[in-house]
Records
---
Amino acid sequence: MAVLFSRPQSLTDTPFRYCPGCHHGLAHRLGAEALDELNLREKAVGIASVGCSVYTNEFFNCDTQQAAHGRAPAVATAVKRARPECFVFTYQGDGDLASIGMAETIHAAARGENISIIFINNACYGMTGGQMAPTTLPGQKTTTSPLGREAAREGNPIDMMKLLNALEGPAYLSRVLLTSPGKQAAAKRSILRAFRAQMKGLGFSLVEILSACPSNWRMTPVEALRYVDEVMAKYYPPGEVRVAKEVLEG
Amino acid sequence: MKDQVELVSGNRAVARGALDAGCRMYFGYPITPQTEIAEYMSMVLPEMNGVFLQAESELAAINMVYGAAGAGRRVMTTSSSPGISLMMEGLSYLATAELPCVIANVMRGGPGLGNISPAQGDYFQAVKGGGHGDYHTPVLAPWSVQEIYDLTRTAFDLADRWRNPVFILLDGLLGTMMEPLRTREPVPEREAPSWATTGIFAREANDRTPRSIYTLHMPEGALTEVNRRLQAKYREIAREEVRYDEHFTRDAEVLVVAYGSVARSALQAVRIARQQGRRAGLFRPVSLWPFPEEALYNLSEKVQKILVAEMSSGQMLEDVRLATAPSCKIEFAGAMGGELIYPGTILTRLQEE
Ligand SMILES: Cc1ncc(C[n+]2csc(CCOP(=O)(O)OP(=O)(O)O)c2C)c(N)n1
Ligand code: SF4
């Protein structure tokens, strides 16, 4: 019998422990499929971060290290420089990457560190129960912006694509959605491009995934998908913002 | 080459010791009085096919050490007091993940931004753990340029032997002074250890299970188990890695306990006291953790008094009190804020009854 669909080799058989409608599981799967397709599993060292995805190391079927909160790009930098023949990726949430780890993110990008980052932007701190993140949208209510984020009080959100695109170092930067099968396929193409950028030694690559966190948004999974499409994607426009031409060659 | 004697600074001796131990990766952030180490590494490592990277902060530097150590490389970072404080979170992770690495702290005056003069105010931070949670790191405290080189080499072997971060504790005086150094035959970098995340492809066909380095232990009882294992290891280190140095202690009636550059002042004071007929001795802990408790206890039963001399408000003093016989009189000569302790100060105290 022909197998039409199976678990990617790059995922372990550990069941995901994410909430219903959470996008972490899908993002893991797409990352793992990309590793499989590019034959990277055995070369890979994945760096888990601190957030709901802290167990990334249990889910990816490759060598892994779990970094302290925000420090994954520093850890990845060193792993890549220690073992340039390895494929090194991090998997980080928005609190991890854009708040406590902002310096590590920006500097790894500026150095053009030859690593790839899967960045989950769910506009809140998922693991600690839905506090405000640097990416929380204007007006969005969280447990630490209970009246809704207001620039004068809580400050403005940070658009990581704009910030990173100001630097010379990145070879590939893209923002994607997972709200429909078509968009998931496009997201995977982005991840493949990001990974290829590293394989070709072009420098820093990052894919930002606008992700649903139904539990902390106090929404049903379906409402959360709509929120990503209709609210988040308006504020954070999807698309490739940096594609070094060598990424597309060959 | 082998028998060549060079005149180098303590800072440079740290770098030379690391390189001769096969360390080819260095991450650091500039801070006086140890920046010379980074500058030297930035000059020589690229030529040796090694990695020098100036990190964006000490926070990043110590986490780079985590990544490189986890990938199975010999790796080090160095800093001075405020920078070491920033590294403490990372140290706790390194200790928990049991990653071998070497960290040198060339201590300066504190607290706060303090000043850039020599000090020993980071003793507690170094020997009691320093970051969060129950952990220890061996701490080696050399007192000469030669010993800085030798102990830096030793530190890498200890780190590997115990799968643990190891500290070299210096002060600004030791880091910046120059003395003759006789280096030994360098060793090549050792192979990646059997637990390192090297990528599956780098391993034999029978060793293809993915490896993971992590410090989160959520299942019930898991973290207790980790702690038990760590504590058992620390007890073993405490039994096997005690190091100390003694001068004129055999018949001593009065004993100075000092480490690092202060021990140099102390030795001079002890010599002069001897010339004057006072039977003084010096006990110099070389491993500050594990602290040489037993050896010191035995001496404390024989001497009339112990003078602890330390460039702090009295940190090692506490360990000396814990380690000595209750009958022994303990006195203290301290200096804070980057002031030195000169032989004369110690001599005066030795002359007192
Ligand atoms: C130094 C430190 N500070 C705070 C925390 C607590 N903490 C754990 S996860 C987290 C936020 C994670 O949010 P994000 O990165 O957005 O990931 P998500 O959970 O949403 O996937 C925080 C603040 C920590 N573990 N370490
Ligand atoms: S809290 Fe949010 S991010 Fe975390 S698992 Fe649940 S839905 Fe996903």
---
Amino acid sequence: MTPKLKVALAVAVTCALASLPWLASATILQFSISTLLLATLAQGWNIIGGYTGYASFGNSVFFGLGSYGTAIAMVQWHLPFGVGLVFGAVLAVVFALVLGIPVLRLRGHYFAIATLALSQVMTAIVSNLEIAGRNTGLVLPLLNGDPLFYELSLALLVLATLTVFWIAHSRFGFGLIAIRENEDAAASMGINTTLYKVLAFAISGIFSALAGGIHAYWITFIDPVSAFDLSLNVKMIIMTVFGGPASILGPVVGAFVLSGISEILSSAISSVASLFFGAVIIVAVVFMPRGLADVLRRFRKTGWRYFSENVKKYRL
Amino acid sequence: MSTPLLEIRGLSKRFGGLVAVDDVNFCIAPGETLGLIGPNGAGKTTLINLISGSVTPTTGEILFEGRSITSASAFRRARQGIGRTFQIMKPFPGLSVLDNVAVGALFGTSTTAKALRVAREEAREWLELMDLSRHADQRADELGGPDRKRLELAKAIAMKPKLLLLDEVMAGLNHVEIDDVIEAIRKVRSTGISVLVIEHVIKAVQSLADRLLVLHHGKQIIEGAPDAVLADPRVIEAYLGRRRA
Ligand SMILES: Nc1ncnc2c1ncn2[C@@H]1O[C@H](COP(=O)(O)OP(=O)(O)OP(=O)(O)O)[C@@H](O)[C@H]1O
Ligand SMILES: [Mg+2]
């Protein structure tokens, strides 16, 4: 495919997606909004986890900060939604800068564990803030406008994907990949590793926070436990890894496919659903540990051997 | 004499009870190649780590182009013109050989934010020099030992450093390969850069170094012209003697 054709295809797909509110039922629209938000979250995680190689469990904190930032601005200060979104994103950036600098010094599992701890701490802090409504949370003004939320979510996903596209083709992104591949070598070759990591964390956080803000206004009610829900972070990771970390469309495809499967399963057989979902993930990790994106790239060349080779190569 | 490119003053590094580098003092002039030899565990790699900023000194000072860089971070030193290789090689395993080198061209001492395409073009030239062109599109972790060594060197050279720190880039290579690498280092050096070369291969040190510095138990025991240093009884005892024994 020529670059021009790819751009044309991307624009066509985006336009088709944008026309969904005129075609789909209310239920499908609701499902689509949450899928688009999940895809945005996965795409955000892709920046810190996929490109930079830092398995963040702090992205659900960004989501929570975005939710609460928007809610506080709208409920307590009676500011418009747009200002609330920006406030949430600012909170995320401040969090990324203040806590990113110490936490991003840790590597591998230590980073993952530290961010995990942060998410617990944030839940506790927010549960005790008067302005955040303590344990009971906040109720946002009601806006009946699913088509609007849908278009907003789609726009945010497009923005996140364009950002990842830029990262994949820029000097900055090249630096992030070098950090993932070998941080010491990256530093000794002139990459400002601390700055790059913190920026990646912050950009990742901005998208999570914006998704959180839209989500909060959409569902009109937030409380600490659901806003800082760690399982949301786990979903981001699974979707990204399933689709293909450090690829431009992998996280989006991963989110669409897995959301679809889980929706079908949960409407059919709810109790077995999560079990089956787990099985799908295990099979995916064993047979395609580098994600769908890698399958698409290499399957043509290697055929079905692709799967057996993966099993051998990663000793699974 | 003009200001030295690198000046080391009373540099020491202590790891717990072990003094790995003990009060070392020396200079490297612009365009000069200094050979650093010494038995295993003498502190050679630690000295390079101190200069490149991977390790912070316990005491002492490091000056680059007359300014203290003692507390500068590793990436800043790289940008100022200190490029290094790692004895335990640190390739970017998942990247192509070409992109490994492109990182050096894209970052390193480059001050303009050049396009990825330009960096890759530059990287191709360095691969040519290091005889790695046919591996350009392979993943770095698919390379064999000798090619990995050459890649490590190509990455550092692509940074266009003013001072190149080489930590045993010839270890594990055969005679023909060693001659090729020596030739490549000569070519790079002809652009006027300084080199600090650690090597156990005496032939390589002799043919490259303008001066030799010998470390033993972290202390510099002698410094001078290569032939004189290699003939010195202290060196034969500390270094060559022990190897032959
Ligand atoms: N990070 C570290 N922590 C503790 N001890 C260290 C560390 N790095 C090096 N050492 C010790 O310092 C001493 C000098 O090590 P160094 O690697 O500098 O020697 P070398 O001259 O490069 O040896 P070789 O020829 O084997 O490469 C050794 O005893 C080593 O065990
Ligand atoms: Mg060494």
